[in-house]
Amino acid sequence: MNNNRFGNRLGQLLVSADIKNFTLAQSLKYDVSYISKWISGKAVPSKKNIESIVNVVCGLVVNHGSKDFIAEIKREYNASDDEQLQDALKKELLGAYHETVGDFDYAKYVNNASVVIRPEGQYPLLQDYARGIDTSKPMEIAILADLFSMDHMSKLLLAGIENNRFRVQKERPDIHLHFILDIGQLDGHSVYDVILFVHMLTNYSLLNFTLSQSKAAKGKLLFSIMKHYAGISLLTDSGQFLCTVSSRDKEVGHSIYDNIIAHENPDQNLFSSLTLRSMLETREYMQLLLEQNNRWLVGHMMELFITKDLFDQLLKSEFPEEELARREAERAYLIAQNIFEREDVFIMIYNSALTNFMLSGELDFFNKKIVLDAKERKKQLEHLKNLFLDHRDLHVKMVSGGFSDDFRYITNPCMFLSDTVNYLRLENDYYDKNILLVRDSQLREVFNIFYDEIWNDRQDVVVSERQLILEQLDNLMNAATLLSDVE
Questions:
Q1: C-alpha–C-alpha distance, residues 164 and 237, integer Å
Q2: Same fold, 5-101 and 110-269
Q3: pLDDT digit string, tens, across residues 75-97
Q4: What is the pLDDT of residues 144-183, one digit of tens each?
């Protein structure tokens, strides 16, 4: 068995829809132990029964999932009704099954190429080539994709997310990835798609990565790994794969690569990659704070939420000979303390950001990793609590949990929005390559809609009551005290 994608996805769907293994077993007239084995990867259903099994699973999920769950998963799959959702889930589970069992007929390959019409598992066919590639060597990769029109599993695979984790685990500047997509297909109201997009940027930021916008990506997927393999897929209007053509012929791959690169326009790059130090020196960091309508989504503890004495101490140690950056950093901190008094500042902070800070002590200080002891962590959490207590006009909410199980092992990024300056602060553990300044006006509007969608409409995961947020900070301070006693 190549992997357990089928079991993983089956388990995720059952948990999200609050369906017990026993319930599925009863519906299938199977012993519940079979369901457990499928989910754990110890076994898979037989080929002759897989379609009927998937039909039952999808029927249970669609008919018995909660109203909020069904509404969210319809947005994820771009499904307008239950029938479309059930069809999308069926295609995904069948594709996951075929990838898990490696069910491919290699007799179909002719002259190093294959053609599959309406594939059930389009990605396994393509990934089979990738498994033979020596990723320890430099590579040139080009992708042109209608990413946001694709099915759920395809989005994850193209974003480089597998088994709820990033596939890129270390910095690889010798792998050049050209990614071209149609940003017009990204809807800010789809919280899942925007978060997936930001996580994709985080994952690929460890490569030599360029991202461009082109309408040519609509309705298709073209990809090429130079000298290894290439493929073309056409999509239906509903985003399903109509057909896939792939080849291991080097000349074909080179031709497809050149065709993709021809759509890459430097003037249509969606982001500028910066360092936080350069943002300080060019005063773009300061400009964001001075703009109207500051909206922050905070994924980890950062420099603007710490005490002045700790800030001064770190400023001296981390910027010893950088006078301009040090001066601008200090000004930014002082201005931030003032803007917390304004009524047009909105802050959403992930509960996981505070919990991770309490446990690890990791602080992002202008993109410099600082680790604080438990006693100091408690002091900074107390400072944050007082900040929220003293600034009653400051709009504060907390994201509790996450927006999808697909990202539960992935650290959340930071997003900073204002009327004219938007930038992302990615969590990729390489702080010199994690700042993306949004250049595209259409993408800025997508992020604005996304933020408003979470702030106003996602009460299932967003805590609005300030008292509950303060109580969580109290809990974390108590935990930091216990850690301090141990240390």
A1: 28
A2: no
A3: 777 778 888 888 888 888 887 88
A4: 999 998 888 888 888 888 777 787 878 889 999 999 999 9
Work out whether the CA dihedral 394, 341, 335, 470 comes out positive or negative. Answer: negative
User: Which amino acid makes up residue 356?
Assistant: N
Q: What does the H/E/C string look like for the chain?
A: CCCCHHHHHHHHHHHHCCCCHHHHHHHHCCCHHHHHHHHHCCCCCCCCCHHHHHHHHHHHHHHHCCHHHHHHHHHHHCCCCHHHHHHHHHHHHHHHHHHHHCCCCHHHCECCEEEEECCCCHHHHHHHHHHCCCCCCCEEEEEEECHHHCCHHHHHHHCCEECCEECCCCCEEEEEEEEEECHHHCCCCCHHHHHHHHHHHHHHCCEEEEEEECHHHCCEEEEEECCCEEEEEEECCCCCEEEEEEECCHHHHHHHHHHHHCCCCHHHECEEEECHHHHHHCCHHHHHHHCCCEEEEECCCEHHHCCHHHHHHHHHHHCCCCHHHHHHHHHHHHHHHHHCCCCCEEEEEEHHHHHHHHHHCEEEECCEEEECCHHHHHHHHHHHHHHHHHCCCCEEEEECCCCCHHHCCCCCCEEEECCCCEEEECCCCCHHHCEEEECCHHHHHHHHHHHHHHHHHCCCCEECCHHHHHHHHHHHHHHHHHHHHHC
Of 3.30.70.20, 3.40.30.10, 3.30.1340.10, 3.30.870.10, which CATH number belongs to 110-269?
A: 3.30.870.10
- The H-or-E segment that residue 417 falls in is strand 414-417
Q: Is the separation of the CB atoms in 61 and 19 below 8 Å?
A: yes
Per-residue pLDDT reduced to its tens digit, 186-223: 999 999 999 999 999 998 988 999 999 999 999 999 99
CA distance 111 to 245: 12
Question: Whole-prediction pTM value?
Answer: 0.80
The CATH code for residues 5-101 is 1.10.260
Domain boundaries, the chain: 5-101, 110-269, 272-486
